[in-house]
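Researcher: We plan to redesign the surface later, but first we want a full-length starting point. Tokens attached.
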């Protein structure tokens, strides 16, 4: 019941924020939103509820997170606009946890395909991308983006066109939402440790092991998200 009430409040907050942007022009296209404390006070909601509302609007193409700069209204809103009232049933599901659950559905199968279909050159690229994640993380850089490239290399090596088309749609939303995750360090540590295991199975071309490793990786990230 508490989760349902929380989701409903975040839905209402997303509605209100959208109204302030589109209907009232409080925040023009391309403008920066107030910081989290100011905006949560203005909307009279908790910062957690505000983050969920922002995550929804990010996934819907209304807002974007610019790391180190803040949250901005997109320069151009989706061409067909948003019918928030028509998305009431979907709104509570458009969260990072749900997006990782979507990845949990297809990425274990994808990495299994990569084990059998990847060329030696593609495996080398996956290894390079994995090392790049480690390097970027050590330098304090944008590790979610580097991690996205690592997973994208695996997707390409699966040689499945539908998975190649589906992944960018899901992962673009995941990557933006990760920018506002409050336990990014734990997520980083989890990703680095799990990626090493996934790589080990990939290099052995062990389909079952790689699939299990990817499944465990996604569940680790989901559990970490739930701790926020």
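Model: Full-length starting sequence:
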């Amino acid at each position: 019941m508490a989760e349902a009430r929380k989701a409903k409040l975040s839905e209402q907050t997303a509605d209100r924020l959208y109204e302030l942007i589109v209907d009232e022009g409080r925040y023009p296209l391309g403008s920066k939103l107030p910081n989290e404390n100011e905006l949560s006070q203005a909307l009279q909601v908790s910062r957690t509820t505000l983050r969920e509302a922002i995550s929804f609007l990010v996934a819907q193409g209304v807002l974007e997170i610019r790391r180190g700069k803040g949250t901005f209204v997109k320069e151009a809103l989706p061409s067909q606009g948003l019918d928030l009232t028509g998305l009431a049933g979907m709104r509570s599901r458009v969260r990072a946890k749900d997006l990782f659950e979507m990845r949990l559905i297809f990425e274990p199968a994808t990495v299994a395909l990569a084990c059998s279909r990847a060329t030696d050159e593609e495996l080398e690229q996956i290894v390079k991308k994995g090392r790049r994640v480690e390097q970027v993380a050590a330098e304090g850089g944008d590790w979610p983006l580097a991690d996205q490239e690592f997973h994208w290399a695996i997707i390409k090596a699966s040689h499945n066109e539908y998975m190649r088309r589906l992944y960018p749609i899901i992962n673009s939303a995941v990557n933006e939402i990760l920018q506002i995750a409050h336990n990014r360090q734990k997520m980083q540590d989890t990703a680095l440790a799990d990626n090493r295991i996934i790589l080990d199975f990939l290099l052995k071309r062990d389909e079952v092991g790689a699939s299990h490793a990817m499944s465990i990786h996604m569940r680790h990230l989901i559990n970490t998200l739930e701790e926020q």
